[in-house]
Amino acid sequence: MSPNSSDLYSEHVQKKITTPQNREKEKDAEDNRHAMKLRKAFNRIKQLDASFSSEEIMPKSSAQSIKRGTIAHITIGLEDLNHSTKKIPVRAQVAVTSEDNTKPVAIRKAGTSQIRLAEAAVGFTTDDQTSGIQEPGRRCSANGTAMTKSQASVALKVKRPTELASRKPGKVVLPKSGRTAGANISDFSQVAAAACKPKTHVFFLKVHKSASSTVMNILFRFGETHNLTFALPTNGASQLYYPNYFTTAMVEGFAPGKASHFHIMCHHMRFFQPEVARVMPKSTFYFAILRNPVDLMESSFTYYKMMSPFAKARNLEEFLNQASQFYNASAQDSHYAKNLMTFDFGYNHNGNFSAKHVQLMLHTIEAQFDLLLISEYFDESMVLLKKALCWDLEDVVSFPLNSRHHSTKVHLSEGTTEKIKSWNKLDWELYVHFNRTFWEKIDWHIGREHMRQEVRALQQKREELAKVCLQEGSSVVPMSIRDQDLAPLQYGKAQILGYNLKPGLDKATRGMCRRLVTPELQYSRLLYRKQFHNKLLKFRNPAHLPKLHNRRTF
Q1: Domain range spanning residue 451?
Q2: Which residues of 41-51 are buried (b: 16+ CB within 10 A; e: fewer)?
Q3: Is 105 within the bounds of a domain?
Q4: For 107-150, what is each residue's pLDDT tens digit?
Q5: Is residue 481 part of a domain?
Q6: What's the predicted TM-score (pTM) here?
Q7: Domain stops at, among 68, 89, 114
């Protein structure tokens, strides 16, 4: 071939590569490769299921639904998908030698030898009969008797890293670490605080009915103030494909194959980590918040009363006593009535989990998330979050949003409480485990006395803002909300409270106060218009909403 012919041939190839048809083929090829990757991951889940028993840890799904994004959640055994691990204190480590996948699974924590999370050596007690969780300050032995401080210290002692290294480690079957290590909460010190750099890549799993709307408002305000980019639902929707598994196709502005430009993702979704990892960078800080399943179900029954599981039951007691009559496990909205938190984390809420399955679920969530907060200790949670993200006190102060009026809350008997725990077994296991790790993080990284000081400072800041911003000094019932643009969504039989701002505030103060009390739907639409000002909102009215007095706010 002559030089001229070679040049013509190269030019022809270049033109062929850059044609629209070839670009479309390349896009299809990339989609097919991604779908194949997810199929392989799903097949590994099925093999994992088969290795245990007929018990189902994840719902089954066809290859076609995988390509659509309705994908089974991946827990362990995936070595080809990016994932995260965190470092834990030496006191919480134990050696693992098993190579059998049917035995307790080993987890590699950054900066340690082969280890797995230890079974709890301490517990927390409380006098609250509705929770059954032990009080944070009191440590108990395995048989439930109180332990002295010295006994508790002995119970926490484990092998040193040098001793661990002398033993042959077992095979690790969790995914390879994909996110940047070191997202842990550093030990509290002035030196650490001075060197701390605020984190701006944040993922928040918005668990239903767990004070998550208030946390979402905190993230909205921080992102807007610092001009960050949100991973928002397409067309201005309020959720990311919920209750289906999350898929990247539901994120406005996401382009496969291009570097991610999103800072914060916090809308409702059913968690699927491989798809989230395609949107958020590896350095992202992952966190979520949990609530006592007893209180959560009482709230859900009121808020989701129109959903099929609750619609015909006169009260929660009747539903629990005749669950087989009211509950249909195959109904699309069944998750609102059983193990709702487990469902949001991506697991099968109807699964007949063994103790081994539960441990796998807990260990996997612990490996995927940097921090799990507890809504019953909301102020402590915000202090812990502030420290983990290296934010300021002003960044995490808030007013409660999407909270109910006390008249719609029902007192539960001890018998009903126990029935709720049994009915929501998976949620209960989830809550007990992460309530324990929550207080361990406080003890390890902050200390109780310093936490009390931080909480008081946060509460004082909230009180100061309430005096500046709120006309009544607190929340008001729906009928008393004067600015309907600030009226929250009223759903089910709950009366969701709102706020009235003081008149006569200057422009800057009013803007600050207004952001503090703006409900999530209105704030989400505001951010969508700001971020995608050339696009029209298609989902102005959420589907299947009741016709109530503040309908105009939707």
Answers
A1: 190-540
A2: bbebbeebbee
A3: no
A4: 333 333 322 333 332 232 233 333 445 444 444 443 444 444 44
A5: yes
A6: 0.71
A7: 68
